[in-house]
Amino acid sequence: MRLETKLIQAGVGRDEKTGAVSFPVYYATAYRHPALGQSTGFDYTRTANPTRTVLEEAIAEAESGDAGFACASGMAAVHTVMGLFSQGDHLIVSLDLYGGTYRLFEQVLSRYGLSFTYVDLRDLEAVHNALRAETKAIFVETPTNPLMQITDLRQIAGLAKQHGLLTIVDNTFMTPYCQRPLELGADIVLHSATKYLGGHNDVLAGLIVTKGEELSEKIRFLHNSIGAVLGPQDSWLLVRGMKTLALRMERHQTNALAVAKKLQEHPAVAEVFYPGLQEHPGHAIQASQASGYSGMVSFRVRSAEQVGLFLQNLRIVSFAESLGGVESLCTYPATQTHADIPLEVREYVGVCDRLLRLSVGIEHPEDLIADLFQALDASLVVGGAAR
Ligand SMILES: *Cc1c(COP(=O)(O)O)cnc(C)c1O
C-alpha cells in the first residue's frame, strides 16, 4: 500500500465486535483481565489505549518506523525523547529552532544538567567543531523554522552514526508525506501533530516514531513513565485528520509555490524563503531527500513599520500562531513563536523584526494572493518603502 492508502485505512474495520469503519473512541481507563496473568493487550490507559494504538500504528507505518507514541503536545513529545539523556549529556541542535523547543532546552532541561550547542547544520565543519566527548545526539529541524534552511539529512545522520550519536528529526514542517527521515538514516522522528498531521487547527498533539527495537523499548518506557500521553478523543481527531494528509499536502504545496512566486513580485517584499523556489539555496538538497516542499513560506518586508499595517489589513489570512491547518495563518516570529529566544540570538540567525511567516492553507490560491497583496499595498502607507 502507498502512504495515501495506508493513512486512509488506519483503524478501518479494526473494531472487530462492531466492524466500525471509523475506529471508536475508547474512553475506558481500565480494562478487565480475562484471568490471572492474562491481558487483552489493554490494562490501564496511560500504558495503552485502543484509539491511541490505532494512531500510533498509523504514524509508525507512515514514517517507516518500528513504533509510534502519541503525546499530549509536540512539546511533550520533545520532552519525552529528551528523557533518553542524563545529567552531563550534550546535544548538537539546529541553530534556527522552534522557539518552544529552545525554551525547553535552555530554561528547563539545562537545569537538569543537559547542555546544547546550536549549530548551522548545513556547515559540517561547524558540526565537527561542536562535537564533545559527552555529545549524545544531533537534533535537527529541516526546513528550519522560520528561515526554511535545508539540512542534508543523509549527511548529518551519517556523521552521527560515525560518532555513535542519535539523530532526532523534528519532521513537523514536512510530514511523512513529503519527507521520511528514518529512511534517510535518522533514529527518531517527532512531530507537533497540532500542525499538518491534525491539519484543522483544532487538536493539540505530539507524535514520536522510533527505529529499532531497543530504542522503541526505551521510548515506550519513557512514554509510560512520564505520562504525557494523548487522550482518546484527541487521538481520534488526529486519526481523522491524518486520513486526508496526502490531499491537503498537495494543495498546501501548490498554493505555497504560487504565493511564494507572487510575493517576490510585490515592491513591499524584500526577500522570500520557500524551498520549492528554484533559487532557494537548499532547493537541490530538498529535492534529493524529500518528495515535496510543504506549505510554509517566510518573507521579509522592507521596513519593520510595515508589519503592523500588513497584519491589521489581512482579511482571509489570520494573524495567529501555529501552522499546518487548512486555514492560512500568518505569524510574526519576533514577538510570537520566537519571543523566548534572546534578541542577539534571533538577529544572528536572521529572525529579524521584518520577518513574517505564512502557513499557506488550502483556500483558492487567487483569493490568498489577492488578500496578501491588498494588505501589502496597505503596509506601504508608512515606512521607507515607497512604491
Ligand atoms: C509547534 C511546534 C512544536 C511544538 O508543538 P506543540 O504541539 O505546540 O506543543 C515543535 N516543533 C515545531 C517545529 C513546531 O512547529
From TrEMBL:
<dbReference type="GO" id="GO:0030170">
    <property type="term" value="F:pyridoxal phosphate binding"/>
</dbReference>
<comment type="similarity">
    <text>Belongs to the trans-sulfuration enzymes family.</text>
</comment>
<dbReference type="GO" id="GO:0016846">
    <property type="term" value="F:carbon-sulfur lyase activity"/>
</dbReference>
<keyword id="KW-0663">Pyridoxal phosphate</keyword>
<dbReference type="GO" id="GO:0005737">
    <property type="term" value="C:cytoplasm"/>
</dbReference>
<dbReference type="InterPro" id="IPR054542">
    <property type="entry name" value="Cys_met_metab_PP"/>
</dbReference>
<feature type="modified residue" description="N6-(pyridoxal phosphate)lysine">
    <location>
        <position position="195"/>
    </location>
</feature>
<protein>
    <submittedName>
        <fullName>Aminotransferase class I/II-fold pyridoxal phosphate-dependent enzyme</fullName>
    </submittedName>
</protein>
<dbReference type="GO" id="GO:0008483">
    <property type="term" value="F:transaminase activity"/>
</dbReference>
<dbReference type="Pfam" id="PF01053">
    <property type="entry name" value="Cys_Met_Meta_PP"/>
</dbReference>
<dbReference type="GO" id="GO:0009086">
    <property type="term" value="P:methionine biosynthetic process"/>
</dbReference>
<dbReference type="InterPro" id="IPR015421">
    <property type="entry name" value="PyrdxlP-dep_Trfase_major"/>
</dbReference>
<dbReference type="InterPro" id="IPR015424">
    <property type="entry name" value="PyrdxlP-dep_Trfase"/>
</dbReference>
<keyword id="KW-0808">Transferase</keyword>
<dbReference type="InterPro" id="IPR015422">
    <property type="entry name" value="PyrdxlP-dep_Trfase_small"/>
</dbReference>
<dbReference type="GO" id="GO:0019346">
    <property type="term" value="P:transsulfuration"/>
</dbReference>
<dbReference type="InterPro" id="IPR000277">
    <property type="entry name" value="Cys/Met-Metab_PyrdxlP-dep_enz"/>
</dbReference>
<keyword id="KW-0032">Aminotransferase</keyword>
